[in-house]
C-alpha cells in the first residue's frame, strides 16, 4: 500500500497545507473516502458534502481551509490539475516482467528489448521493433515492420497494421485499431448507377510520445505518406480518425468524434463529444469545438465554435434562443405584412 504525508503531497502539487500533517493511503471521492484517504472539493456548492465526508484531508481551492476548520486542507490554484498529479502518485503502475510467452508468435527477425513483456496469444510480425519496458497484453496483433517505443502499453485486442509507428509511453486501450485502410472509393459510371472502386492505401500511421487512445477507437493509414497524431494528444473511446489526418500536440478528442480524411487539427485543440470534421477542414491552434458540432472549412486560432455548420459559439447561443421563438416571431411578422 502506498502512503504519503500531506506535506509531501502539498509540495508535489505546489500547494499549501493548512492543518495537521499526517499520512494518507489513497485517493477517493467525497462520498466514498475513508478516514485515511485524501479527497477533493472544487466548488462551494459541495462544501456541505466536504464537511460530512469521513476523510480528514482534502484538496481544495485557495481560501477554502477556513470553511473546513475540522479538516486538513491542501489549498491549490487548480484542483483538477492537483488531482491529476496526486492520482499519478497513488496509481498502481503495471510493471514489465521481461517475459515473452511461448504461446505467442514472434517472428525471428523482430527486435525486442529484453525488458519488454509479451503475454500469451500475441502475434509479432517480421521486422518489428519493440522498445524497453513495452507491455503487450493477450490477443494483440503487431504487423510487419511496426515500431513500438519505450514504455508503451497495449491492452488486449489492439491491432497495429503493418508499418505503424507508436512512440514512447503511449497507452492503447482494448480494441484500438491503427492503420486500417482509409474509406476511399471512386465511382465508375454504369448503365444503372455506378460501381464503387476501392482506392488502395500505401501509407501508414505514426503516433507520437505519451499519446493515449481509448477503447475501440480507429485511426486509418494514409493513402500516401502518414496519418499523424503528435505527442501528448489524448483520444477518448470510439473515435474515428480518417486517412492522412494530421493532429497536433496535446489535443483532446472526446468520444464519438469523427474526423474526415486530410483534415488538419493543430496543437491544443479540444473537440467535444460527437463532433464531426469534414474532409480537408482545418482547425487552428487552441480552438474549441462544442459537442455535436459539424466543422466545415477553417476554424481560426483560439476560436470557440458550436453548431452545424460550426460558427462562433457566442453567436450560436443567441441563434438557439431565437430558434425557440421562431413560431412567435413568424406570427408577428405575418401580422405586420398583412397590415
From the structure above, extract its key features.
alpha/beta, UDP N-Acetylglucosamine Acyltransferase, domain 1, 2 domains, ten-stranded parallel β-sheet, flat
List the helices and strands and how they pair.
Elements: E1 4-5, H1 6-12, E2 16-18, E3 23-24, E4 38-40, H2 47-52, E5 57-61, E6 72-76, H3 79-90, E7 105-106, E8 111-112, E9 117-118, E10 123-124, E11 129-130, E12 135-136, E13 141-142, E14 147-148, E15 153-154, E16 159-160, E17 165-166, E18 171-172, E19 177-180, E20 185-189, E21 194-198, E22 204-207, E23 212-213, E24 218-220, E25 226-229, E26 234-235, E27 240-241, E28 246-247, E29 252-253, E30 258-259, E31 264-265, E32 270-271, E33 276-277, E34 282-283, E35 288-289, E36 294-295, E37 298-299, E38 304-306, E39 311-312, H4 313-324, H5 326-338
Parallel strand pairs: 4-5, 5-6, 7-10, 8-11, 9-12, 10-13, 11-14, 12-15, 13-16, 14-17, 15-18, 16-19, 17-22, 18-23, 19-24, 22-25, 23-26, 24-27, 25-28, 26-29, 27-30, 28-31, 29-32, 30-33, 31-34, 32-35, 33-36, 34-37, 35-38
Antiparallel strand pairs: 1-3, 2-6, 20-21, 38-39
Amino acid at each position: 500500500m502506498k502512503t504519503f504525508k500531506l506535506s509531501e503531497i502539498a509540495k508535489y502539487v505546489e500547494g499549501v497545507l493548512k492543518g495537521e500533517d499526517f499520512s494518507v493511503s489513497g485517493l477517493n471521492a467525497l462520498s466514498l473516502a475513508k478516514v485515511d484517504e485524501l479527497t477533493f472539493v472544487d466548488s462551494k456548492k459541495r462544501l456541505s458534502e466536504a464537511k460530512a465526508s469521513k476523510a480528514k484531508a482534502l484538496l481544495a481551492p485557495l481560501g477554502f481551509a477556513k470553511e473546513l476548520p475540522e479538516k486538513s486542507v491542501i489549498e491549490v490554484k487548480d484542483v483538477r490539475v492537483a488531482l491529476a498529479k496526486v492520482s499519478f502518485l497513488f496509481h498502481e503502475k503495471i510493471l514489465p516482467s521481461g517475459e515473452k510467452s511461448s504461446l505467442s508468435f514472434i517472428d525471428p527477425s523482430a527486435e525486442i528489448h529484453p525488458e519488454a513483456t509479451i503475454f500469451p496469444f500475441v502475434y509479432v510480425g517480421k521486422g518489428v521493433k519493440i522498445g524497453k519496458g513495452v507491455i503487450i497484453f493477450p490477443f494483440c496483433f503487431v504487423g510487419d515492420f511496426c515500431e513500438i517505443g519505450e514504455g508503451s502499453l497495449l491492452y488486449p485486442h489492439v491491432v497495429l497494421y503493418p508499418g505503424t509507428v507508436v512512440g514512447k509511453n503511449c497507452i492503447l486501450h482494448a480494441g484500438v485499431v491503427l492503420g486500417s485502410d482509409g474509406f476511399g472509393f471512386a465511382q465508375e459510371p454504369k448503365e444503372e448507377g455506378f460501381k464503387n472502386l476501392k482506392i488502395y492505401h500505401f501509407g501508414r500511421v505514426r503516433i507520437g510520445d505519451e499519446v493515449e487512445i481509448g477503447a475501440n477507437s480507429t485511426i486509418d493509414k494514409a493513402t500516401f505518406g502518414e496519418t499523424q497524431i503528435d505527442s501528448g494528444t489524448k483520444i477518448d473511446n470510439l473515435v474515428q480518425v480518417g486517412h492522412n489526418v494530421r493532429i497536433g500536440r496535446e489535443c483532446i478528442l472526446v468520444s464519438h468524434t469523427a474526423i474526415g480524411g486530410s483534415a488538419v487539427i493543430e496543437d491544443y485543440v479540444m473537440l467535444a463529444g460527437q463532433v464531426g470534421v469534414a474532409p480537408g477542414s482545418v482547425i487552428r491552434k487552441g480552438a474549441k469545438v462544442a459537442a455535436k458540432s459539424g466543422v466545415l472549412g477553417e476554424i481560426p486560432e483560439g476560436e470557440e465554435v458550436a453548431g452545424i455548420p460550426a460558427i462562433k459559439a457566442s453567436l450560436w447561443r443567441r441563434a438557439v434562443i431565437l430558434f425557440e421563438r421562431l413560431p412567435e416571431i413568424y406570427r408577428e411578422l405575418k401580422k405586420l405584412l398583412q397590415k
